[in-house]
Design brief:
binds ligand F0G, five-stranded mixed beta sheet, 16 strands, alpha/beta, three-stranded antiparallel beta sheet
């Protein structure tokens, strides 16, 4: 059979409130044209993020009832810890409430002002946490990674030549290097095993730690199994184990491939680093056996991490993204090619060739998708990565202007995706009528979350 159906059936449903066009126009204005400021009950299809928005399985809900809520030495912690150890092979597992807490702790331990941290592409919270530590977060993706229309496998790779050049410099200090799997900021593109292995070899030669930002490790493993020579006969478990074996640790937002609504961890092999991390954990997150999570969350994660690695689930997940991508491309809409693991990224710069970067074409499209169809998405371009200087001028962001539609795990069915395709197609038909936006209010860090916009 050619039809690939969702490998689950639905036991509990959540209703969607339908809104009208006049309502949405008003809601958008009240939210200052920033969908982060819209109430979720006013959103019909929420593609804002795949983080913490997935549906848990019957096994996960059952596991929740087994949560041991003891402050210290909880049984649920050991269940969680052993599962993460089995999957990753890392020695010390430090639970955190989500990914950015793991990042903050790691960087507080390793990064000093003036340091440089290379990564294929930093996600926004990773970048912000490094900048908060007064260090530089440096993106060194392969050149193709910056070209939305170029379709090659493993477009998320890190540029090894640039890494070698950086390491040869004597005027900078590099405390660690990272690779983000999959490369979220550049289209959810996977990183090859070869690239992870080589990065590891280069870093080990220099004696500098190498970490994975492992939020979507299972999706990355699926691409390796499907597309990288030599991995077709390996299991997802084996591939994950090999990926992690090349790193000295990882940060993890378990709200993605942990299949849970909250959670994360920092994993490290180094004993001293683990001790320092746990000391910081106690300061703001909690005791090392729960790290800001409830025992029931740890149980849900122990089950969810395994479910994210199931081959049928991964095939359906990656195929859903490709399905939507193929239909948009057929309508002449430019997207990041090839489609990646968790989201579709529309090239808003090409969608609106008449809109300059300075009027935020990505944010315009985000607003249009909400206005036309109640769909929530997120801009990944000048709003997210541009920066306002003290004198009010703006540091121009040179990357592509993208709009991400990220797919919650196991939450929407095919007709939701078909509806979204129709909405995007309508925005495309009317594109010439769309006008730009300007920022009227913005915070110093992570401005896309709270900035206010107004039509130009
Ligand atoms: N690293 C990557 C690659 C991410 O995608 C995220 C979160 C984080 C780190 C931080 O994890 O949210 O648990 O603190 N990404 C979400 C997104 C928010 O929408 O892509 P967190």
């Amino acid at each position: 059979m050619k039809t690939l159906f969702e490998p689950f059936r639905i036991k509990m449903v959540e209703s969607i409130r339908k809104t009208t066009l006049p309502e949405r126009i008003q809601i958008l204005e009240q939210a200052h044209y920033n969908p982060f400021l819209i109430r979720s009950e006013d959103v019909m299809i929420d593609f804002l993020t795949d983080s913490g928005t997935g549906s848990m399985s019957d096994h996960q809900w059952a596991a929740i009832m087994l949560g041991d809520e003891s402050y210290a030495g909880s049984k649920s912690y050991y269940h969680f810890r052993d599962t993460v150890k089995e999957i990753t092979g890392f020695k010390h597992i430090v639970p955190t409430h989500q990914g950015r807490a793991a990042e903050r702790i790691l960087f507080e331990c390793l990064v000093k002002p003036g340091d440089v941290v290379p990564n294929n592409t930093h996600f926004d919270t990773t970048r912000a946490n490094i900048e908060y530590a007064e260090a530089q977060a440096l993106d060194i993706p392969i050149p193709e990674g910056l070209l939305p229309s170029v379709s090659i496998p493993f477009k998320g790779n890190l540029d090894l030549d640039q890494l070698r050049e950086l390491l040869a410099r004597t005027d900078i200090h590099i405390p660690l290097a990272m690779i983000t799997i999959t490369n979220n900021a550049e289209g959810g593109q996977p990183v090859s095993m070869e690239n992870i292995r080589e990065t590891s070899r280069i870093m080990r030669d220099k004696g500098i730690p190498f970490f994975l930002d492992a939020c979507r490790f299972a999706e990355n493993a699926y691409f390796i199994q499907r597309d990288e020579p030599g991995y077709q006969d390996k299991t997802i478990d084996e591939i994950c184990r090999e990926m992690f074996s090349y790193a000295d640790g990882c940060t993890m937002s378990a709200k993605k491939d942990g299949m849970a609504n909250i959670g994360g961890f920092l994993a490290v092999n180094n004993d001293e680093l683990a001790t320092n991390a746990r000391n910081l954990l106690i300061l703001t997150e909690g005791f090392p056996s729960y790290g800001g999570l409830a025992g029931r969350d740890l149980e849900a994660l122990a089950v969810g991490l395994r479910e994210a690695m199931q081959p049928d689930y991964l095939e359906y997940r990656i195929r859903t993204v490709a399905y939507m991508g193929e239909r948009l491309v057929k309508r002449g809409i430019d997207i990041v090619q090839p489609t990646g693991g968790h989201a579709i990224f529309i090239d808003a710069g090409r969608f609106y060739p008449h809109l300059d970067k300075s009027v935020y074409p990505g944010q315009v499209l985000v607003c249009e998708l909400y206005r036309i169809g109640g769909i929530r998405s997120v801009e990944i371009g000048s709003v997210m990565f541009g920066k306002q200087n003290a004198d009010g001028s703006e540091d121009e962001y040179l990357g592509p202007e993208l709009v991400r539609l990220a797919f919650p795990r196991r939450t929407y069915t095919q007709s939701h995706f078909d509806y979204a395709i129709e909405v995007i197609a309508e925005a495309f038909q009317n594109r010439k009528m769309s006008k730009g936006l300007r920022i009227v209010k913005q915070p110093k860090f992570l401005r896309h979350f709270t900035a206010h916009f107004a039509p130009v």
